[in-house]
Design a protein that fits this description.
85% helix; mainly alpha; 2 helices
C-alpha cells in the first residue's frame, strides 16, 4: 500500500506543477479564451490539494475501522 500512496503523491505533485506552469502561461498570453482558462487553472490549483488531503483523511479513517479490536 505504501507504493500506491507514493505513486499517488507523485501524481499529485506532477499535477500541481503542471497547473502552476499552465497558470503562468495563461496569465502571459492575451487570447480570448485565456481568461477562462486562467480562472479554471487557479481553481484547480486550489481544489486539487484540498481533494488530496480529504482523500488521505478518509483513507486514514477507513483504515482505523479495519484495524479495530473486532478483527
Amino acid at each position: 500500500m505504501k507504493k500506491f500512496k507514493r505513486s499517488l503523491a507523485l501524481l499529485g505533485a506532477v499535477l500541481l506543477i503542471l497547473l502552476y506552469v499552465s497558470t503562468f502561461l495563461f496569465a502571459l498570453f492575451d487570447h480570448s479564451a485565456s481568461l477562462g482558462l486562467l480562472k479554471a487553472s487557479i481553481a484547480c490549483t486550489i481544489l486539487l490539494p484540498v481533494l488530496l488531503y480529504a482523500y488521505t483523511l478518509v483513507y486514514k479513517a477507513s483504515r482505523k475501522d479495519e484495524d479495530g479490536p473486532d478483527n
